[in-house]
Design goal:
By secondary structure, this protein is of the alpha/beta class. Helices cover 20% and strands 13% of the residues. It has a 7-stranded parallel beta sheet, with helices on one face. The chain has a two-stranded parallel ribbon with strand order 3-5. The longest helix has 20 residues.
């Protein structure tokens, strides 16, 4: 009898652990309207409870590594800081659905951005990014990709794998007619926004 009770108790504990470790993904409206953490210090008091983190305009000089402890994080806004680089370790945030880091002087986007398999929205506009890693094509759920006002000279062919993409913003980026046609050809189902083409050569 005691052994059976022990087995049942152990099973229940395991079920609770599984539910906690696999956070339910919220819909976009719930994420948008819920109250999020606005302080790393407050968030660190209970890392597993951090679903939404908004650190906009906090004079950050680098990507806060403490964020990597928030395994249930689904919404992250680091916009209007001075971050320079999105680190490789960002790939551990596999529950992330919304990631915004616009106007933050970002120069490098890690290839591990492709590990964010639940990402729906990615905003990196008004940065200094020159290179898109091919792994961006792994974001099969991505619906909105905002890259306007960066410094791209080419786009990886893997972008054709973004089957869920609805909107791609590439305005304020110098592009020839040929390059514009190349991008729109890869993404025939997406609305692609571009500035008028240029006669530029690199």
């Amino acid at each position: 009898m005691r052994y059976s009770f022990f087995k049942i108790a152990l099973f229940l504990i395991l079920m609770i652990f599984v539910r906690i470790s696999n956070a339910q993904l919220l819909d976009s409206l719930s994420l948008d309207t819920m109250q999020g953490f606005t302080s790393i210090q407050e968030a660190m008091k209970n890392p597993d409870a951090v679903i939404k983190l908004v650190l906009r305009k906090q004079h950050l000089k680098s990507f806060p590594k403490e964020i990597l402890a928030f395994k249930n994080l689904q919404y992250l806004d680091l916009s209007k800081n001075d971050i320079k680089e999105i680190p490789d370790e960002i790939g551990v945030l596999t529950n992330l659905q919304y990631f915004s880091c616009f106007k933050s002087n970002v120069e490098r986007l890690s290839k591990d951005i492709g590990k964010l398999s639940n990402l729906l929205y990615l905003n990196l506009n008004q940065n200094e990014i020159e290179y898109l890693p091919p792994q961006i094509g792994n974001l099969e759920k991505l619906e909105i990709l905002d890259l306007w006002s960066n410094n791209f000279a080419e786009y990886p062919s893997s972008m054709a794998n973004l089957k869920s993409l609805k909107v791609l913003d590439l305005r304020a980026i110098l592009m020839t007619d040929e390059l514009q046609n190349q991008v729109t050809g890869m993404l025939p189902k997406a609305r692609v926004y571009m500035s008028p083409s240029c006669k530029c050569k690199w």
